[in-house]
Design goal:
By secondary structure, the protein is an alpha/beta fold. Helices cover 25% and strands 32% of the residues. It has a seven-stranded mixed β-sheet with strand order 2-1-3-4-12-11-10. Strands 5-6-9 form a three-stranded mixed β-sheet. Strand 1, helix 1 (15-24) and strand 2 (28-32) form a beta-alpha-beta unit. It is globular, with a radius of gyration of 15 Å.
């Protein structure tokens, strides 16, 4: 599908499912665990998982500064669930010192939809994706509480933005990698 290389942050969380989806699309996908792994990637997916754990691992692996530099240079990025938290400008209920790359002008509340037991699915109408609604899986998902003027809301659930985009950054409260529907990954890859 693309001659581009998409990195997937592979410190913790659902990174393998993103790589499987990219493989199905015929995209060259590589795991990113160290600063050297960022060399040669054209875009990056920041997966779901536990954002405070990912934050600590980003620091211990020396990835904060090089990833900040790449995002500041407009490297395309797609953050899902915890990845959305890492890309957000402001994080509510984060741990002290939590990493936030401020790559998209949104405010999110960690675990805003509740605990694991409060997980749910929702069928979303996503602008730019035709056909059947997209089934979105929400697990301890962040809630977007504020959206800046440069941010496009691409889908909502429960009257709240759950898929947003600004420039080269796409972020979702949900886990698109947990379904067999690859349309959102395809949209991201085609935007690179």
């Amino acid at each position: 599908m693309s001659s581009r290389t998409v990195g997937v942050l592979a410190l913790q969380g659902a990174f393998a499912r993103h790589i499987d989806t990219l493989d199905r699309l015929g995209v060259n996908a590589v795991e990113v665990r160290t600063p050297a792994h960022l060399d040669g990637v054209d875009a990056l997916i920041l997966p779901g998982g536990e954002s405070s754990t990912m934050s600590k691992l980003l620091v211990s692996q020396g990835l904060v500064e090089p990833l900040t530099a790449r995002l500041d240079a407009a490297m395309p990025a797609f953050g899902t669930c915890a990845g959305m938290i890492l890309l957000a400008h402001h994080v509510l209920d984060g741990i002290v010192g939590q990493t936030s790359f401020a790559a998209i002008d949104i405010t999110v509340r960690r675990n805003g939809y509740g605990r694991q037991i409060d997980s749910f699915e929702a069928d979303l109408e996503i602008c730019e994706i035709e056909g059947e609604p997209f089934t979105a899986v929400f697990i301890r998902a962040p809630v977007v509480t504020d959206v800046g003027p440069s941010v496009e809301v691409m889908a909502t659930a429960r009257d709240t933005p759950v898929l947003v985009r600004s420039g080269s950054v796409l972020a979702s409260s949900f886990h698109p990698e947990l379904t067999d529907d690859d349309r959102l990954h395809r949209l991201f890859v085609e935007s690179i």
